[in-house]
């Protein structure tokens, strides 16, 4: 294809002519824009001081990575560079529409710019952080750095604004598996983490072993809908009381061995049963450890986050089983489970209120933890 000409434009965009009332309304709302680019989604969201989400744009690169069976870091960085301006423009337009304005929100009309600083792929994070710094400097507003894992936690506030610590939080994503005692906002005790693969990673690897494509989570959970979770007895690792660590690699190996054994024996695999039994092995452990942590800490409130929390069986299991024990269970809205900027905006909004700003010499931090 013919390359299109490079776009040249004034930057930062000058603010549109607005009436006095409109300008005052925009200023009063204290708009915080947030950028997320830690893995394979380029996302921009805009939130106001009261927590109204005025824009929530996500551009996913999944199709570019699918043929490789996983995220290729170099491709991720390049795709972020290609789309970030377009995603930004779409968000500025969406927010203007939400406020009933004709012209897009201009950078100078923002109160602050937030960005995911880490953890994630360093090359991918750098795109968002560098863009956010330039954008905030051009707009003349403060910069706010956000921890991606905290973003996954705060996604719950989009569903349940009155969620208040102390509570137990399970983080299950493509890169992380953690059980956390949230004692106060910002005060986290990680009770246990995975010793090897993350839960989402195990879903991706099992789907890959079956030749089903990437990402594996949605494919496996669709298959599991019609399967029998008790058909195959897969191992539940580190399933002892009081042990909050996780291990997924043994289960993954057991599934792969099962596939090889059945195939060698000439048996046709019953994919729904396999998927449902794999899910059951993963989620039984998640449930037991969450229940144990709730009992040990005395917390009466529980929430979950990360890409795997989009899984309908996991959501239902926690809501029903923990709910029966009088625990209030919160799950994020479905579109806030996998990576997005709305959850980053919610963290940035709260940091903005506290005046928790970053200096312009910050860098991406791929190894951040809670
Ligand atoms: O949070 P996320 O978008 O990225 C990280 O921060 O890692 O999580 C992506 C992970 C992938 O491994 C994907 O397979 C998994 O979340 N996932 C699911 C489902 N939807 C996405 N896992 C199980 N069931 C799902 N429905
Ligand atoms: Zn994530």
Describe the overall structure.
This protein has helices at residues 20-29, 62-66, 73-98, 122-139, 148-154, 199-209, 216-224, 249-264, 271-297, 312-323, 342-354; strands spanning 32-36, 41-47, 53-60, 112-118, 143-147, 167-172, 177-184, 187-193, 301-305, 328-330. With 370 residues, the protein is an alpha/beta fold. The protein folds into two domains: 29-153 and 339-354, Nucleotidyltransferase, domain 5, CATH 3.30.420.40; 165-331, ATPase, nucleotide binding domain (Nucleotidyltransferase, domain 5), CATH 3.30.420.40. The strands form two sheets. A five-stranded mixed β-sheet has the order 3-2-1-4-5, sandwiched between helices. Helix 10 (312-323) links the parallel strand 9 (301-305) and strand 10 (328-330). Helix 6 packs across helix 7. The radius of gyration is 22 Å and the shape is globular. Residues 148, 152, 173, 306, 339 line the site of zinc ion. Zinc ion binds at residues 148, 152, 173, 306, 339.
DSSP summary, beta strand count: 10
Number of helices: 11
- Biggest beta-sheet profile: 5 strands, mixed
Instruction: Give the C-alpha Rg.
Output: 22 Å
**Which term fits the overall shape?**
globular
Strand percentage lies at 15-25%
Query: Strand order of the main beta sheet, please?
Result: 3-2-1-4-5
- List the ions, cofactors and other small molecules found in this model: 5'-O-[(R)-(carboxyoxy)(hydroxy)phosphoryl]adenosine, zinc ion
């Amino acid at each position: 294809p013919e390359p299109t000409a490079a776009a040249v434009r004034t930057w930062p965009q000058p603010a549109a002519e607005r009436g006095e009332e409109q300008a005052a309304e925009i200023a009063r709302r204290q708009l915080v824009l947030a950028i997320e680019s830690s893995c394979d989604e380029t996302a921009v969201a805009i939130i106001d001081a009261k927590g109204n989400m005025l824009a929530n744009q996500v551009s996913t690169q999944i199709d570019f990575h699918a043929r490789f069976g996983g995220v290729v870091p170099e491709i991720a960085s390049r795709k972020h560079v290609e789309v970030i301006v377009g995603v930004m423009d779409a968000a500025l337009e969406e927010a203007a529409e939400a406020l009933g304005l004709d012209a897009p929100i201009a950078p100078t009309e923002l109160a602050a710019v937030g960005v995911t600083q880490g953890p994630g792929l360093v090359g991918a994070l750098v795109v968002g952080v560098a863009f956010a710094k330039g954008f905030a400097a051009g707009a003349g507003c403060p910069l706010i750095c956000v921890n991606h894992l905290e973003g996954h936690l705060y996604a719950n506030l989009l569903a349940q604004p009155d969620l208040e610590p102390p509570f137990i939080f399970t983080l299950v994503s493509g890169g992380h598996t953690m059980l956390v005692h949230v004692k106060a906002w910002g005060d986290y005790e990680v009770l246990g983490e995975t010793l090897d693969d993350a839960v989402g990673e195990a879903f991706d690897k099992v789907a890959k072993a079956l030749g089903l494509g990437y990402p594996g989570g949605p494919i496996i959970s669709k298959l599991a809908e019609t399967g029998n979770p008790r058909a195959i007895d897969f191992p539940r690792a580190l399933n002892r009381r009081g042990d909050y660590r996780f291990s997924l690699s043994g289960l993954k190996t057991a599934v792969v061995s099962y596939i090889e054994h059945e195939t060698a024996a000439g048996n046709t695999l019953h994919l729904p049963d396999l998927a449902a039994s794999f899910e059951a092995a993963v989620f039984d452990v998640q449930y037991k450890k969450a229940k144990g942590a709730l009992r040990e800490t005395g917390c009466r409130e529980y929430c979950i986050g990360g890409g795997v929390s989009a899984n309908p069986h996991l959501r239902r299991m926690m809501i029903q089983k923990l709910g029966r024990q009088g625990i209030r269970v919160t799950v994020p809205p479905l579109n806030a489970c996998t990576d997005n900027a709305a959850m980053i905006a919610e963290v940035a909004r709260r940091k903005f209120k506290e005046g928790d700003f970053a200096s312009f010499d910050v860098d991406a931090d791929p190894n951040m933890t809670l």
